[in-house]
């Protein structure tokens, strides 16, 4: 915040037509925008907006300017009841829930990163609590960030809400300190993790007590990688069966999932990738190792972009394959989705490489859908990412300056094939249409150095590719017709069909060539194919041709298939 004069507020709507609810007040613009995007991506709101609040020194009032807004929720959904405000944390135990830990991690993100700690550790370590209390402004600012939206949501004063949170924190700290002084918190230096979990498996406070032991065990780690190693060491203590196994692994997963959702944490485990795309590929391979390994064996494009995992990441990947580590796997999945729907390029400076990376990630995440992420969330993320591929800036960078018009068409077909979402496909089809229907493309094909036959074969290939790249019929049919018209002009000038029909060659050979032209194999469908079909029909009716076919039974099946495909069968 600029000396208290500027801050940013995130408002949400959970139900269309309901009033805006203030969810977060923060000093950091990036944090506000990231939270707004996350709320929409994860479906926790139907609309979000972010405002910049500037204090007017004269009136001492804040002036708001909307800097981001998403969603269309102005019309109320009459069939749905009004949503209730989420329950407020009122007891120390409430602070240990997933939702509460998430909020704590958000408002204390910088402080926690400085101390290599997670919200889970803060709630279980007396030494961390003392450091936070001694830090002065960090705790006070965190309380204000939470109190402002809560006060707005409940229509009470911010001061009253701050007092309530202060009281809750005091009770929570007093409870933790009292249990520490009494020696009731688990100490894994004096008993094994397995023994402690078995002993506490029936205790009502088992999660809190065992969590204190886990937090203390990883307190001395000097990096996120060391913390993960120590947590996996604890998990490895457990046999396949055991009375406290479920409690133990659930407890280990909580700090592990939080570490993997912290940017520096997963970076230390996977290594620093060259760009966002390589980082996402590593995360995907980590969270769905077996599925990606099978895909690598059959898809060279996936094998090309998937990096090798470090020994620590491989060790973690083994645990993530089990159902017991589902929460940790889900944490990585959420992070992948957030990055995919963000604005950062996967391969800055390499537009073609970006498409290849997105294609590989799409195959890997789709193959692992269900186990890693719901399929509908994967599709929504790739629709959002595809939207970036069809912008003018990206297409211009992708095509560059050195491509011929024909190469541009081939590149745009590949781009269209690798975008998803009806609107994105339509936009990509628009770029493709602009090139195919241009005079520049027509001249390039007509005036090229290739032979007329090679030009026709090339146009036929483009025509087939246009139909396979996912455009709807009303979008690709005009493009096919245009390619057919260009092919018709080339064939007419070169008189290819006429030359084949009158060539001094065996009748079966001439018929085969004409039929391949007629069915779109060696010429695009359109005028050229129609002329070839007409000549083929004349030739197939001749007695000499039928006699030649009867004398060459090894060629009859091929010719018959072409005749049927050309629609000349009687």
Folded structure, characterized:
This protein has 4 domains: 6-70; 92-262, no CATH class; 263-389, no CATH class; 495-566, no CATH class. The termini are far apart. By secondary structure, the protein is mainly alpha-helical. The chain is elongated, with a radius of gyration of 33 Å. The chain has 30 helices and 4 strands.
Structural class, from helix and strand content? mainly alpha
The mean pLDDT is: 87
Distance between the termini: 82 Å
Q: Would you report the number of β strands?
A: 4
Q: Measured on Cα atoms, how large is the radius of gyration?
A: 33 Å
Q: Order of strands side by side in the largest beta sheet? A: 2-1-3-4
Summarize the main sheet.
Answer: 4 strands, antiparallel
Percent strand equals 5-15%
Instruction: Identify the overall geometry.
Output: elongated
Number of helices: 30
Low-confidence stretches: 75-85
Helix content: 55-70%
Domain unit count: 4
């Amino acid at each position: 915040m600029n000396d208290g004069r500027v801050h940013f507020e995130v408002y949400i709507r959970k139900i269309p037509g309901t009033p805006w609810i203030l969810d977060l007040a923060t000093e950091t613009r990036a944090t506000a925008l990231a939270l707004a995007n996350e709320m929409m991506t994860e479906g926790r709101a139907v609309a979000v907006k972010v405002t910049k609040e500037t204090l007017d020194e004269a009136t001492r009032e804040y002036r708001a300017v909307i800097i981001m807004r998403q969603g269309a929720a102005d019309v109320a959904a009459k069939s749905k009841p009004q949503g209730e405000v989420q329950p407020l944390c009122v007891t120390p135990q409430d602070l240990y829930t997933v939702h509460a830990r998430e909020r704590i991690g958000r408002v204390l993100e910088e402080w926690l990163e400085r101390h290599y700690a997670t919200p889970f550790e803060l709630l279980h370590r007396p030494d961390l609590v003392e450091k936070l209390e001694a830090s002065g402004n960090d705790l006070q600012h965190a309380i204000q960030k939470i109190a402002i939206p809560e006060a707005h949501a409940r229509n009470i004063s911010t001061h009253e809400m701050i007092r309530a949170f202060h009281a809750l924190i005091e009770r929570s700290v007093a409870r933790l300190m009292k249990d520490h002084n009494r020696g009731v918190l688990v100490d894994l230096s004096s008993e094994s993790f397995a023994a402690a979990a078995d002993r506490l498996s029936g205790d009502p406070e088992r999660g809190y007590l065992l969590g204190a032991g886990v937090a203390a065990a990883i307190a001395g780690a000097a990096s996120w990688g060391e913390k993960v190693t120590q947590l996996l060491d604890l998990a490895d203590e457990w046999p396949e069966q055991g009375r406290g196994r479920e409690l133990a692994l659930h407890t280990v997963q909580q700090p592990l999932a939080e570490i993997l959702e912290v940017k520096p944490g997963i970076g230390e485990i996977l290594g620093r990738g060259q760009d966002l795309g390589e980082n996402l590929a590593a995360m995907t391979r980590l969270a769905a190792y077996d599925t990606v390994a099978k895909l690598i064996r059959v898809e060279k494009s996936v094998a090309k972009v998937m990096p090798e995992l470090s020994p620590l990441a491989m060790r973690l990947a083994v645990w993530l394959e089990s159902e017991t580590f589902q929460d940790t796997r889900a944490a990585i999945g959420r992070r992948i989705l957030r990055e995919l729907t963000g604005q950062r390029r996967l391969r800055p400076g390499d537009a073609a490489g970006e498409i290849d990376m997105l294609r590989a990630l799409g195959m890997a995440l789709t193959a692992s859908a269900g186990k890693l992420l719901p399929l509908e969330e994967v599709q929504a993320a790739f629709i959002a990412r595809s939207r970036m591929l069809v912008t003018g800036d990206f297409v211009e960078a992708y095509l560059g300056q050195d491509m011929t018009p024909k190469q541009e068409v081939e590149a745009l077909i590949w781009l269209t094939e690798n975008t998803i979402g009806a609107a994105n496909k339509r936009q990509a089809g628009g770029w493709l249409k602009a090139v195919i229907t241009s005079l520049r493309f027509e001249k390039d094909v007509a005036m090229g150095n290739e032979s007329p036959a090679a030009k026709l074969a090339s146009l036929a290939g483009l025509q087939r590719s246009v139909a396979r790249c996912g455009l709807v019929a009303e979008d690709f049919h005009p493009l096919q017709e245009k390619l057919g018209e260009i092919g018709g002009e080339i064939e007419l000038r070169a008189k290819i069909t006429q030359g084949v029909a009158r060539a001094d060659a065996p009748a079966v050979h001439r018929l085969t060539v004409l039929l391949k032209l007629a069915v779109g194999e060696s010429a695009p469908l359109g005028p050229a194919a129609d002329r070839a079909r007409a000549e083929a029909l004349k030739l197939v009716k001749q007695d000499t041709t039928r006699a030649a076919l009867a004398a060459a039974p090894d060629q009859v099946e091929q010719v018959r298939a072409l005749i049927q495909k050309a629609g000349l069968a009687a």
